Amino acid sequence: MKMFSFLITAVLTFIFSTQLYSQKVYETRDEIPAEYKWNLNDIYKNWDEWEAGLQKLQKITDEIVGYQGKLKESPDNLLKVEKLIDDWKILAYKVYTFALLTRDSDTRNQEMNAKLQQAQIMFSKFNTTTSWINPEMLQIPWETMKKWLEDSAFKPYRFGIEDLYRQQAHVLDESKETLLSYFARFNQAPRDIYTNLSTADVDFPTITLSNGDKIQVTNGNYSRVLATNYNQEDRKNTFEAHYGVYKANENTYAAIYNAVCQKDWSEAQARNYKSCLEAQLDGNNIPVAVYENLVNTVKANTEPLKKYNILRKKILGLKEYHSYDGSIPLTDFNKTYPYEEAKKWVLASVKPLGKDYQSKMENALKGGWIDVFENKGKTSGAYSAGVYGVHPYMLMNYNETLDNVFTLGHELGHTMHTLLSDENQPFATSDYTIFVAEVASTFNEDLLLDYLLTQTKDPKERINLLQQAIRGITGTFYFQTLLADFELQVHKLVEEGKPVTAEVLNKIMDDLFTTYYGDTYSKDEILDRVWARIPHIYRTPFYVFQYATCFASSAKLHNDVTTGSEADREAARERYLNLLKSGGSDYPMEELKKAGVDLTKPETVNAVINQLDKLVTQLDEEINKLDKQ
Ligand SMILES: [Zn+2]
What we know:
The protein is an all-alpha fold. 64% of the residues lie in helices and 2% in strands. The protein has 27 helices and five strands. Helix 13 crosses helix 21 and helix 16 (303-316) packs parallel to helix 27 (602-628). The longest helix is centred in the C-terminal third of the chain and has 37 residues, at 459-495. It is globular. Bound molecules: zinc ion (ZN).
């Protein structure tokens, strides 16, 4: 993930790590050699420098406020404010990241938590004291602004300002905006209720497994049993007990989800959008056709998914194959992957991206950029965080599993994207959207898989590698698209004024399961409540489809860069590197189009479907080799 804490939860929900051994956790950071820790001196030498940075932020804020009421006087004033905002943000990144990384390396440190809060308070103060800027800028007529923007000094700010005017089309007059603002807090209520019902107030039952162990079927235990327990009866009981909680509260969950959709529809209508979907996609200027193309194309191409289920059923030797059988590993393969080896592989895998890319990655791996190992108190998971003008930093909790080798490749994809964007863009357009962010990381995972498959002849290891890649596609690409389809169907019902009840929601889910999986899963009626246990659709409607479009984009790009004539591959590589270098200088759809990815076309989505088909065929071949051994 790239500082999207949200994405990692999604990944953990659907993709399970099957190797649960872990390597040692260091007691203190002093025991860890310097080359495996990040060197924060690249940002600040000491806390005095940090303190001085924090104070300078206040000075810049004061300077910006000095321009209040003067923006329309001259383009010079506007330009000065834009530059001051850049200065402020560049500095803020340094101040914030320095405190954040120090805190994350030992979250028990109260002093660091306080410093981080100091930085956060500074941010919210900045937001409040500069909230006049956009409305004041928008008072300048577009015709005037267009002339001002012709001056090349405005080049870095052109895209941001044009986008501000574009979005203005759905901003209402002042009295209406004020009226709407009274409902802002109230509109958060459905998701707050969902969070409380599904976390604080949820009470999962305790069951007894076949070995006599008693477990409470929490999210964590549920995932663990499904991914590690070879007794089908145990998986069944865990699944049914876990889902039973959602079934018992299904009418309440349905009422909450209905409220979420009603809120979306009232907001969309208030702002003159034709549909909830159009309103949600407008922020990034994404055409509705992208979303519709995704759900329609995936729905029409579920053969590889079915083929995979049939293969798993055969390999696992199950009489009946259920959804709760989908995570159990196909082989008992447990190998450790030392960090120094993983580094070499990841580096070798990006060869198709050229010498320059490779040598930049080598530099990122040299030491000081990545905090590799786990120590007591360190924050969990993995991320990449950019610091403009310095370099990106990465957090890992490397534990020698195959999963972690891919996490290293994934995060390095983000790091390289940030690096190339920062080198080629002025600060104002260096930040890219999630729409392209996860393309860079998934692309590198694809390359890593290619490379590792060339390195090993051991069928068991190859099966493990293929499983890793397939889980990504079935869990992220297919399942998130299924959810995206569900969200769209329910919102449409609300737009048409039709009732939304638990029964209606279960029916939609049931039909989707039938379309996606056919009869390759034995029916479990209780599974239809899956909509009740996915927080994303309540918290951020129409968001999960981006996971799938990122997969599709990177599959298409990966295909372009690695297949065809040398000249074609060369050209595709240049287009891809230009995508990374373009940062946030245009709308994500435009950036992707320039790289050769048109998400309104079925062929783009088909790239990942074909990829799955190929992987399942390969898996079948490896399994056959194993049988002959
Ligand atoms: Zn990521």
